[in-house]
Amino acid sequence: MSILVDIDVMLARRKMSVGELADRVGITPANLAVLKNGRAKAVRFATLAALCEALDCQPGDLLRWAPEESEESEEAVGAVGA
Question: Which pTM was predicted?
């Protein structure tokens, strides 16, 4: 996935636990973990807004884009490590 989620960075900066953030946002800790670990397929703007409010940050502090590695570069890395 080329969208990376940095919720854990903001949690550390705010010295807040996943459980506390989940309570403040109104979602389950399990759903927050799915989002935090980059396994979510989508996020609602309302949830993103609630995360930003709870963490006192901007959406760009939580989400960033990075180019996906091509299969060729992944194969090259595997060959070097072999």
Answer: 0.79
